[in-house]
Each structure stands twice: as C-alpha cells, then as structure tokens.
Amino acid sequence: MFPTVYSTLSVDALVSQVLSEYEIEPVVSCCFWHRGLSDVYLVKTETQPYILRVSHHHWRSESDIYFELNLLDFLQQQGLPVAHPLRTLDDRMAVTIRAPEGDRYAALFVYADGEVPIGDLDVAQSRQLGEILARLHCASRSFQSPFCRDDLCESYLFDRSFETISPFFRHRPQDLDYLKESIAHSKSCLQALPKTDPYWVVCWGDPHSGNAHFTPEGGVTLFDFDQCGYGWRAFDLAKFLHIALRTGISRNIRNGFLEGYQRVSPLTETEMEMLQPLTQAAHFWSWSIALMQAAFHNYSRLDDSYFTQRLEQLKLLRSHDWQLF
After folding, report:
1. What is the DSSP string of 181-226?
2. What single-letter DSSP state applies at residue 92?
3. Which part of the chain has CATH 3.30.200.20?
4. Which of 39, 114, 121, 234 could pair with 215 as two cysteines, CB 3.0-4.6 Å apart?
5. Rounded distance between C-alpha atoms, residue 173 and residue 169, angstroms
6. Which of 80, 24, 16, 65 is nearest to 48 (CA)?
7. Distance between CA 287 and CA 310 in Å, rounded?
C-alpha cells in the first residue's frame, strides 16, 4: 500500500462499523459535514441528529483525544452546557479506526441545539458566553484525568509555533528577527503569571461564536474542544479577543465577554495586563495550526501575501492601541 498521511473514510463503513457500536436508532443519513482539525459528520436518525467526529492521525495523540473526551464527560456531569460524547455499547468513549495512515479515533456527540448566531454575537450572547467560560474554568479545578495533554504554556504556544512558522521566513531575515524578538518579549511578560490556582485551569482553547450554538429561548451549548488543555485562564479570554479582533467584532461585544466572565470569576490586575501578550500567543498558536493544516490540504494559499498579512496582524497586536482596531 502506498504511504498515506490523510485518508477520507467511507461513510457507509462508518455507519456499519462505527455507528453500529452505539445504542442509537437506525441511521437515516450520514454526511461528511466539515473538514477541520478533525473530520466531522452529521448523522441523522429517525428522531434526532448527532455529530460523529473522527480525529486526524497527524493532529493529536490517543491520550490527547481521551483527555478531551473525559473533560467533556466531566463538564456535562457538572451541569455545564457542552456537547458531550456518548458511550458505546461496551462503555467506550471512542472507536479506534485502523486507517491507512495509522489509528484514528471516532467519537459520537450529542447534537448542540440551536445554531451559530447570524451576524455573530450580540452583547447579551457575548456576556453569556463569558459567564459560561468562567463557570467551566471554576469546575475544571476539580477535574482529574488518567490521560496526559500538553500544557498551553509559553514554551508550547510560542516555541513550538515558532518551529512551524520560522522555515517560511528563511528568505525574509528581517521579518524572522522580528518574530524572534516578539516571542522573546511576550514570553518575558508572561513570567508574571503564576501556574497555580486560580490562574491555571483547564482551558477550552478555542472560545468563539463559531463554537457555540444559541437557541431562540436563550440556551447555549459549547462544542469543539479540540484545542483544550491546562493553561492560564486568561489565555482563553485572549483567544476570544484574538479571533474577535481578526474578524472585526465590535469593542462592545468584546467587552461584554470580559464583563460576563468577571461576573463569575474576577480576573486580577496582572491577568488583565497579560491579555495583550496572551493574545499574541494566541496569534502565533493559531498561525502554526493553520500552517500545519494548509500543508496537508491547501498549500497553495501559503504565498508571501499570506505571511505578510499575518505579520502585519502581529504588529497591530503589539501596538499600544491594540484593542482599538
């Protein structure tokens, strides 16, 4: 067999060999819904939909995946509104798939009621999302898992990201030096943040409006914890700010998110000061993930204009008026 780094799995085989492991009604349809950091399938039975997620062999380890699934199971038991995984008939949280490139892991999730907000969040929804994130962080302090997951610390967010990004700047030495200096400065700032309670929690890793469904009645369900791990709670807020700034979400909505969080779990003055370097960390980390994905699925987009745009975004995030644009 020719070596493979990524395979597209047969939907029919997923129905017969994976979904049959769960106690659900007969499957009416199973569609390849989205290709992201995992392959996502929309599964419909006669009465309700589900989400089947299949990991990529190159993205996360078995331990990473089971850490996330255990976390979601725990959060659901704590009464938090997350799309949690179902267990198989023999009480497993995932089904191992022997794909050509190596083992992949399929997990079936309840479908998150509602939908992504049209036109993005309003202030009330943003505040609600912030409140739930704070509750999630508080609950995570008692979470324990037999599975390991890389900490979202400065070495992971910056150093690993730089290893991925720097080869693309070999022909741009001045820009490469700027990246090095940016990382060194941000890492030095973060030395002020302790890795202890209440600062250090289990982070969602990717909080934004695209990873939450809202209902007309005001309900909300969080999903997509692909990037979760132990880290500074302020990093989750910075990750929200990074995405909001990149997509042009207004300052009122960004402030609503922070206000909602602080209603439940007030941040210290130091944490507020660290939001800027942590937002830069989020920029580097999301950039490196995007590069990894593009290398597998869409290398053609990695031209000089792509890297120039990302570099200019970093410069804005380092500016004195970083929250004004």
Report:
1. HHHHHHHHHGGGS-SSTTTEEEE-S--SGGGEEE-TTS-EEE---T
2. -
3. 11-110
4. 114
5. 7
6. 24
7. 8
Backbone angles phi, psi at 260, to 5 degrees: -60, -45
The total of other beta-carbon atoms located within 10 Å of residue 271's CB is 20
Task: Name the one residue in this structure whose structure tokens are 């989020």.
Answer: 282
Residue by residue, DSSP assigns 239-268 as HHHHHHHHHT--HHHHHHHHHHHHHHSPPP
Query: How is residue 171 written in tokens?
Result: 């022909």
Q: Is the peptide bond before 266 cis (omega within 30 degrees of 0)?
A: no
Other C-beta atoms closer than 10 Å to the C-beta of 167 total: 9
Within the chain, which residue ranges are assigned CATH 3.90.1200.10? 123-318
End-to-end Cα distance, the chain = 52
Task: State in words which class domain 11-110 has.
Answer: alpha beta
CATH among 1.20.1250.20, 1.10.10.10, 3.90.1200.10, 3.10.520.10 for 123-318: 3.90.1200.10
Tens digit of pLDDT for each residue in 102-138? Answer: 999 999 999 999 999 977 899 999 999 999 999 999 9
Residue in this structure with the two tokens 């039975």, named with its chain if needed:
45
The 10 Å Cβ neighbour count of residue 21 is 17
pTM over 0.90: yes
Cα 180 to Cα 176: distance, rounded to the nearest angstrom: 6
Instruction: Give the whole-angstrom CA distance, residue 148 versus residue 228.
Output: 12
pLDDT tens across 188-239, in order?
999 999 999 999 999 999 999 999 999 999 999 999 999 999 999 999 999 9
